[in-house]
Amino acid sequence: MGILRPRPKPKKAYPNSDRFEEDGRRLYSAYNGTKVARPRRQYSSKRLRLVAIVLVLAVGAVLVFVMSQLPH
């Protein structure tokens, strides 16, 4: 049975040595190759919320001005 089993691959002395320079800094990272999904809606929702707040404040200011101009 031992003859039919595949031989294991030889182990490297330093398996991740190709990732690092001589000073120990990474040459590349596993994260560099992955695509990161960035939330695009968050920026527009913040802008929309800001516009809504400014609009409500402007309408409130106009309403207060109009109410103050009415005769008593």
Architecture overview:
With 72 residues, the protein is an all-alpha fold. It contains 1 helix and no strands. The protein is rod-shaped, with a radius of gyration of 33 Å.
Mean pLDDT: 78
Distance between the first and last residues' Cα:
105 Å
Give me the secondary-structure category: mainly alpha
Which overall shape is indicated by the principal axes computed on the Cα atoms? rod-shaped
Counted up, domains total 1
> SSE order in H/E notation?
H
Uncertain runs: none
Q: In this structure, how is the largest beta sheet organized?
A: none
Rg over alpha carbons: 33 Å
Helical stretch tally: 1
Strand content: under 5%
State the total count of DSSP E strands.
0
Helix content: 40-55%
Keywords: Membrane, Transmembrane, Transmembrane helix
Main features:
72 residues; 0% strand; mainly alpha
Q: How would you sum up this structure in a few lines?
A:
Helices cover 40% and strands 0% of the residues. The protein has 72 residues and is an all-alpha fold.
SSE order and pairing:
Elements: H1 41-69
